[in-house]
Amino acid sequence: MILEILKYPDKRLRTIASPVQEVNSEIKKQVKDMFETMYAAPGIGLAATQVNFHQRLIVIDISDEGNEPLCLINPEIMQKNGEIEYEEGCLSVPNYYESIKRANEIKVSAQNELGQTFEIEAKEMLSICIQHEMDHLNGILFVDHLSKLKQKRLKKKAVKQSKKL
Ligand code: NI
């Protein structure tokens, strides 16, 4: 099932997600629907917060073919190294791209869709994507990393656009 993606400046995007207590059938269904929604968008990452489901769960696929699904439940960053700057976008902030600085390499611990704990080391694109999606779980959008002036301009534009719809 394709889920509705919340759009900035929707306040529900500011919700801090709770930990997933158990990877049960409800969570598995949510993972499936989130992959479907992400691929349909199309996007390379989606956090549960963006579909108004406030538990710590993200899905990612940065491959060109869309055949490398990665699901992270209750992700935690264990280590961060280096710095990388990349022009990011977000399904919740359509048609807006800005350069953001993040850690280049990260080590993350999480559970998969079977509830098994695993660790993953990521760099560059995958690292950026995981950090971006994990921010969503804490109610943070990539645009929050921009200057106050840029944020003000963007908000004005987004509010105007939402009134047109
Ligand atoms: Ni995003």
3D structure, described in words:
This protein is an alpha+beta fold. It has a single domain (11-151), classed as Peptide deformylase (Peptide Deformylase, Alpha-Beta Complex). The chain is 28% helix and 30% strand. The chain is built from three helices and seven strands; from the N terminus they run αβββββββαα. The protein has helices at residues 25-40, 124-137, 148-164; strands at residues 45-47, 57-60, 70-81, 84-90, 93-102, 105-111, 117-123. Strands 1-2-3-6-7 form a five-stranded antiparallel β-sheet. A two-stranded antiparallel ribbon has the order 4-5. A hairpin with a 5-residue loop joins β6 and β7. Nickel (II) ion binds next to α2.
Nutshell version of this structure?
By secondary structure, the protein is of the alpha+beta class. It has a single domain, classed as Peptide Deformylase. It has helices at 25-40, 124-137, 148-164, and strands spanning 45-47, 57-60, 70-81, 84-90, 93-102, 105-111, 117-123.
Low-confidence region ranges: none
Tally of separate domains: 1
Output the radius of gyration: 15 Å
Give the N-terminus to C-terminus distance in angstroms: 23 Å
Beta-strand content: 25-35%
What would the CATH topology be? Peptide Deformylase
Q: What class, by secondary structure content?
A: alpha+beta
CATH class: Alpha Beta
Basic shape: globular
Largest sheet: 5 strands, antiparallel
Q: What letter string, H or E per element, gives the SSE order? A: HEEEEEEEHH
Query: Averaged pLDDT, please?
Result: 96
Mind telling me which CATH architecture this is?
A: Alpha-Beta Complex
Summarize the amount of helix as a percent range. 25-40%
Number of helices: 3
The tally of beta strands, per DSSP, is 7
What name goes with the CATH superfamily?
A: Peptide deformylase
Bound molecules: nickel (II) ion
Read across the widest sheet, the strand sequence of neighbours is: 1-2-3-6-7
